Amino acid sequence: xxxxxxxxxxxxxxxxxxxxxxxxxxxxxxxxxxxxxxxxxxxxxxxxxxxxxxxxxxxxxxxxxxxxxxxxxxxxxxxxxxxxxxxxxxxxxxxxxxxxxxxxxxxxxxxxxxxxxxxxxxxxxxxx
Length: 128
Prior knowledge:
Helices cover 84% and strands 0% of the residues. The chain is built from five helices and no strands. Keywords: Signal. This is Small metal-binding protein.
């Protein structure tokens, strides 16, 4: 009897989890939304690089990088996901470096992230 209750409880839990996760996985983004997210992310990364090159303080650079980090989350495309994650790691490195006052490392990481996002943009545009 006890194993039957466990089985029923387990089955209900699995059904509930499946039902709750479906709407998240069903989200689709149009070509225009993905392209706009890529272009906006590139713009924000360029603004961050410009701030570093123009001698902005670490708080300003960290805030600009934070905006870029948030924007890149809107790049929702299965084909680009791995590349987005790698570029996002560069943004995270830049953000941590800026918060710590290492603007040279922040600038280098931002430039690396920018080249990755530009590559993603080129790949996305050529395939759509």
